[in-house]
Design a protein that fits this description.
mainly beta; seven-stranded mixed beta sheet
Length: 226
């Protein structure tokens, strides 16, 4: 029942940019949740919480790569805090970090992991494309802190999503796995064990997308229910 309610929420807030093609069975003009991540030179000072926005503002690196954090919380797709330059607030209004944006999304049960989704999750895919002036690029990596480690060690996935804006028509890429799992390595009994971990697995906490931006002003992500 929870999975159905999450998918219903996806369809209820679906935003539609027309797209002329389909990719790997996904109708890119079909129902989806749309998220635009916008790179800016000057930090935003306006609180961007408590709205129906579909935008997140992050730092824009011109000569060198700069990194912003987009914290992730479980629930139906929603931008909780669209400003990555001030304290990060959840959709409930709680501060989850000293600085960062916050995006809410369900655990993805369509990507198999050893433990799966603790709450059942929802089946969906994420497709993304780089837009704007050619030449910019972004690397997105899913990270979290180790809940089993007393020091709260930072763990970032060995997998990531790379977006590059080349000349010509922008292309969509399937980035579901790197944006909804952490390919993490843990030490148990002196031995290192590496495994994919679903979003919001209790082994990890404080999940976020590490958004490393070098010159990309606009990244578009689309979340399609399966």
């Amino acid at each position: 029942m929870k999975r159905l309610s999450l998918l219903a929420a996806v369809l209820a807030v679906a935003a539609g940019f027309a797209a002329p093609a389909s990719a790997a069975g996904i109708d890119l003009s079909g129902p989806h949740y749309n998220l635009n991540i916008i790179g800016v030179e000057n930090p935003k000072s306006t609180p961007m919480t408590g709205s129906e926005r579909h935008t997140i503002f992050v730092a824009l690196g011109k000569q060198a790569e700069v990194t912003s954090r987009i914290y992730l919380t479980p629930g139906p797709f929603q931008v909780c805090d669209g400003n990555a330059f001030d304290p990060a607030h959840s959709c409930a209004g709680d501060v989850v970090a000293k600085q960062g944006a916050v995006f809410q999304l369900p655990c993805n049960s369509a990507v198999p992991t050893d433990a799966g989704c603790a709450d059942g999750g929802a089946d969906y895919e994420i497709w993304g494309r780089a837009l704007g002036k050619p030449g910019g690029m972004v690397t997105m990596t899913t990270c979290a802190t180790d809940a089993t480690d007393a020091t709260g060690a930072l763990i970032c996935s060995t997998d990531n999503a790379l977006f590059s804006r080349s000349k010509g028509k922008s292309t969509f890429y399937n980035v579901t796995k790197p944006l909804t799992t952490v390919n993490a390595c843990f030490t148990f009994g002196g031995a290192e064990v590496c495994e994919p971990v679903s979003l919001f697995d209790p082994m990890l906490q404080d999940f976020f997308w590490q958004y490393a931006n070098k010159g990309l002003r606009l990244l578009q992500l689309r979340f399609y229910p399966l």
